[in-house]
Amino acid sequence: MSRNLLLISTSTTHGTGYLEHAEEEVKALLDGKSSVLFIPYARPGGISHNDYTAKVKEALEPWGFKVTGIHEHESPVKAVQEAEAIFIGGGNTFQLLKNLYASKIIEPIQERVKKGMPYMGTSAGTNVAGKSIGTTNDMPIVHVKSFDALQLVPFNINPHYLDPIEGSTHMGETRETRIAEFHHLNRQPVVGLREGSMLRIKGDRIELKGPHSARIFLQSEKPMEFKAGDDIGFLLEAY
């Protein structure tokens, strides 16, 4: 597969504007492209598809990329088939995946990505790039017919990964505990992607980008830490 992906934990970090912290990597991903198809399906309320798309236009168009929302097209499938690049933004992962299925664009996205079309996701858009949405932090506010996601990579991602806070009196499960529970019933690796970090995937190479290390979980093994710049392409063939 000619993967060309940028999977970002979050669209905004503290003290930065929308996508500002990922500007260099976004420009590298979209090098040679002039337009981006934005899919605003993840937001269940509080912001319209038009307003969400306008926010993305405000960020990307000064960098030289024209943005259109998929809802502006008569046929979502045709829009995907003709897109130069796709960006799926954050919100609620269950809402997003339900809308991807309803729009019948799961397979068209998969086919385009196999042929090298750039794909960018943030938060929920990163979640759905994985094998399933079983490691999302979001509440299941809608019923989805399947947890199977776009499967652009054969592992799961946990965006917004949080470490336990030293000295905290919180008695609930940690994120690491939740992922261990997932691995009792599921085999695929999970990447805990901390805020500000992202995965740059080109072909069979996966490089961790950003200011933080990532915590990687394999079933029945101790979690591993990988620093920015490391090649973690083994995840493509872990099982």
From TrEMBL:
CDD domains: GAT1_Peptidase_E (cd03146). Keywords: Cytoplasm, Dipeptidase, Hydrolase, Protease, Serine protease. Signal peptide: none annotated. GO terms for cellular component: cytoplasm. It catalyses: Dipeptidase E catalyzes the hydrolysis of dipeptides Asp-|-Xaa. It does not act on peptides with N-terminal Glu, Asn or Gln, nor does it cleave isoaspartyl peptides. GO terms for biological process: proteolysis. SUPFAM superfamilies: Class I glutamine amidotransferase-like (SSF52317). Its main location: cytoplasm. Pfam families: Peptidase_S51 (PF03575). InterPro entries: Class_I_gatase-like, Peptidase_S51. Its EC number is 3.4.13.21. GO terms for molecular function: dipeptidase activity; serine-type peptidase activity. It is found in: Cytoplasm. Belongs to the peptidase S51 family. PANTHER family: ALPHA-ASPARTYL DIPEPTIDASE, PROTEASE S51 ALPHA-ASPARTYL DIPEPTIDASE. This is dipeptidase E. The gene is pepE.
